[in-house]
Amino acid sequence: RSEINPNSKHLKVLDLRLSDAGIYTCDYGSHTVSISLHVFKLTISLDGHFLPNEVPELTLMQNSSHPLPDLNITLFSSNNNIVRPKLLPNKTRQKYILKLKQLQATDSGTWMCHVRSDSPLINQNISFDVKVLGFQNPDLEKKYATVDSTVILSWRLNFQKIKWKEGFTGQLNWKQQENATAQELLDFNVTARGEQHETKKSSCLRFEIPESKPESTIEVKLPKVRFNHSGQYECQLAYNRRYSQSKIELVVMKVSANPVGPLPRGAKMTLICQVSSPLPSNAHLRWERVNGTQMDIRKSKQHEVKVEVNVSAAGLWNCHLIEDNDRKISLNYPVEEAPGWISYVVIGASIGGSVLVFGLACLCITSGISWQRRRQRAKRMAQARQHLLENKTCQCQQ
């Protein structure tokens, strides 16, 4: 594993190992030159391939012909930030075990281990690669949508960015509530060459897999959102029997009226704005009338999923979902005034209904009285018939 340059007399050692450490002496005539070779070996757990939230361990070993020095080790992340690992206890100076923090997908890249010693003088940089296969989405992303709108849910993977050459698989699950049974919507696999394939698994939810989408992305399209499409959509990937996931929570808004239809003159209507899950403390629902006043505004209380407003006149109303003074989504509801004849029909129907109820009540009372009289008459006739029978019995005995 070594070779000598005949011109410069340089010795070249290939595939350096810890056992190669020692003193190398060059004799040339009456001249003798000695060089001490100090060898370091840096290894990283799992061969430097991680999933998010995993904790790597670095092992730094040294060998020398002289007494081994006490090393000062500094780590720099791929962003050139100093990382302060936990140094696991070890009785000898030959091995240093460093436990790092939990990794995120953004930690991928080339790291640097700086080794320093004053005696002997050592100032050495050792680079190593850290690859974290994961999602570029936040840990729990919230997405808001209105009923009948189109929504695209997207998970961005970084396997192309970090040149991840190993194959892995994954799946997309959905559940409407936290304690509900998860339903698998699709599964996917990525080959060692980076080719991506998806397969639709469930028809419980109407969704599409977009044909054209960004590279290294898992996407589903809900072409017409329903209120019960809300819930948690979890994208999970698996590599070497290890798993990582990213969730998107879909919150859906709907508006309705009670009663529905045009508003008759003099009548009232209740407008209802509702979301599919409780809102965080920094968010609320708000009804407001277009070109209205402060008196027309209605806000939901903290963590409420519904807000109502009573309406007695025609107009356009908007319901907003507001988070930190930022409008996330809005839905409008136009309240239309019913034509005049409808109002008269409603009034006439109300009067007619009242008259009908009064007539039915009178009929019921009259029928009840007649029935009671018939019952009493039948009772008296039965008693008279009984008396006659008793009298005939007595005459026969005489």
UniProtKB/TrEMBL annotation:
<dbReference type="InterPro" id="IPR021963">
    <property type="entry name" value="Tcell_CD4_Cterm"/>
</dbReference>
<dbReference type="InterPro" id="IPR036179">
    <property type="entry name" value="Ig-like_dom_sf"/>
</dbReference>
<dbReference type="Pfam" id="PF12104">
    <property type="entry name" value="Tcell_CD4_C"/>
</dbReference>
<protein>
    <submittedName>
        <fullName>CD4 protein</fullName>
    </submittedName>
</protein>
<keyword id="KW-0472">Membrane</keyword>
<keyword id="KW-0812">Transmembrane</keyword>
<dbReference type="InterPro" id="IPR013783">
    <property type="entry name" value="Ig-like_fold"/>
</dbReference>
<keyword id="KW-1133">Transmembrane helix</keyword>
<feature type="domain" description="Ig-like">
    <location>
        <begin position="266"/>
        <end position="330"/>
    </location>
</feature>
<feature type="transmembrane region" description="Helical">
    <location>
        <begin position="341"/>
        <end position="371"/>
    </location>
</feature>
<dbReference type="InterPro" id="IPR007110">
    <property type="entry name" value="Ig-like_dom"/>
</dbReference>
